[in-house]
Amino acid sequence: MSRVESIAGEEVLDSRGRPTVAATCRLEGGATARVSVPSGASTSPVEAVELRDGDPRRYRGLGCRTAAANVSGPINQAVAGRELDQESFDQVLIDLDGTAQKGRLGANALLAASMAFAIARSHESLLQPFEQFARDAGLAPHRLPRPTVNLFSGGLHAGKQIAIQDVLVVSLSARTIDDALAMTSDVYAAAIELTRKRYGSRALVADEGGLAPEFASTDAMLADAVQSLIDAGLRPGVDAALCVDVASTHVYESELYRIDSAALERAQMIDRVVGWIKDFPIVSVEDALVFDDWEGWSELRRRVAGRSIVLADDMTATNRSRIDQAAEAGAADALLLKVNQAGTLSDGRRALEAARSHGWTVTVSARSGETEDAWLSDLAVGWEAEQLKVGSITRSERLAKWNRLLSIERQTDLPIAAWPSR
Predict the structure, then answer these.
(1) 172, 238 in Cβ contact below 8 A?
(2) Which of 357, 290, 353, 348 minimizes the C-alpha distance to 327?
(3) What Rg do the C-alpha atoms of the chain give, in angstroms?
(4) From its phi and psi, is residue 322 left (phi > 0), alpha (psi between -120 and 50) or beta?
(5) If you average pLDDT over residues 230-237, what whole number do you get?
(6) How confident is the model at residue 157 (pLDDT cuts 50, 70, 90)?
(7) 160 falls in which pLDDT band (50, 70, 90)?
(8) Positive or negative, the Cα torsion across 214, 220, 222, 227?
(9) Which of 99, 112, 32, 100 is nearest to 64 (CA)?
(10) Average pLDDT, integer, range 12-19
(11) Is the dihedral of CA 220, 223, 225, 231 positive or negative?
């Protein structure tokens, strides 16, 4: 238990130049932590919601002064002077907000407060943040998450120049984080050269650091990713493979999926995704169908079982009850865990526990709007995630997290998690 002296919020900017929330928590005895939280562009309709000011004269309505003031005001009043553990601290926040999606005070305000309290407690206990996260979850980390790294971007991350959102690289044969990032760096360099020659494009990057040339089609995007693996001296499907984030909720319109020049019904979309997995070394497919199509997700999972994990993001929204529902429907076998979808650290942990109870693998994920904070890497290690997805290996808000993971590897000498067997 830790006694809170004060907690205060402030508005800061994320990696897209848009506001987000930071919180500073001070415990009695002096332990202090300042934490900033991310913001997503590709959001699920059922995730916890950020509170924005709505003033069009300032940041086009995206200001977070009200959310920050909620940290300094009602949240501080509710926790200051109280002795709390993480679970009871977060419960105070949940009760104070009183809404299902944490929209009254704002999930951005609640998560900033929750995470600042957690890291202040780690300082108080003289623990690394990943050790504190593990202790609170009753875990003892024995591995490090394998990086999945953004190579090419489309969708909402890159002006929709191609429909699907991300093609990522995962280094299957790497035995350390250092090896994984070195291999991925070689692939990224090869992709820069390939896209320069093929499209005449400069190495300009999208929201999460991925390259975003004018691909002729999704198949061309995937083929270029495979060629980049080969040009880097890697064997596709053996040394490295691809992960795909379709983000289908954002290409779904009038009950059809708008992919390239096609308008696909559910069965056709499933066939398209299955075809990609057959034709390219894809070992993970995320959000291949609209978030509430339980039957379609179940059919897709049945058809790709043993070849690719089916990774749920928008469908489950880091929500325990939706994970249970998805598992009952056989709709996925892996969770993309975004703690800001849940709104507090404890809600995120309950989602983690639900995923584990169903035998799912877990990918801890950043958002498109990030800050230079690196606590996400500690969270992925402390919660024993199999994968970590933070974007590409460019842009400082991404590198802060990869570099933190490298630092944890040097400190702990823990092995890297194996890719789920196929």
Answers:
(1) yes
(2) 357
(3) 21
(4) alpha
(5) 98
(6) low
(7) low
(8) negative
(9) 112
(10) 96
(11) negative
Q: Scanning the structure block, which residue is given the tokens 């926040």? A: 93
Instruction: Say if residue 410's pLDDT is above 60.
Output: yes
Tell me the catalytic residues: 208, 338
- Per the CB < 8 A criterion, the answer to whether 39 and 340 are in contact is yes
Torsion of CA 78, 83, 88, 89, to 10 degrees: 50
Distance CA 12, CA 408 (A): 27
Using a 10 angstrom Cβ sphere, with 0-12 exposed, 13-18 middle and 19 or more buried, the burial of residue 41 is: middle
Spatial separation of the C-alpha atoms in residues 288 and 265, rounded to whole Å: 13
State the average pLDDT over residues 310-321.
95
> Max alpha carbon distance in the chain (Å)?
62
Burial label for 403, CB within 10 Å (0-12, 13-18, 19+), is middle
* DSSP strands (E only) in 184-255: 240-245, 252-253
Supply the mean pLDDT for the chain: 95
The two structure tokens encoding residue 60: 């086009």
* Nearest to 37, CA basis, from 119, 97, 98: 119
CA angle 156, 158, 159 (to 5 degrees): 70
Which amino acid, 25?
C
pLDDT in tens, 20-54: 999 999 999 999 999 999 997 767 788 899 999 99
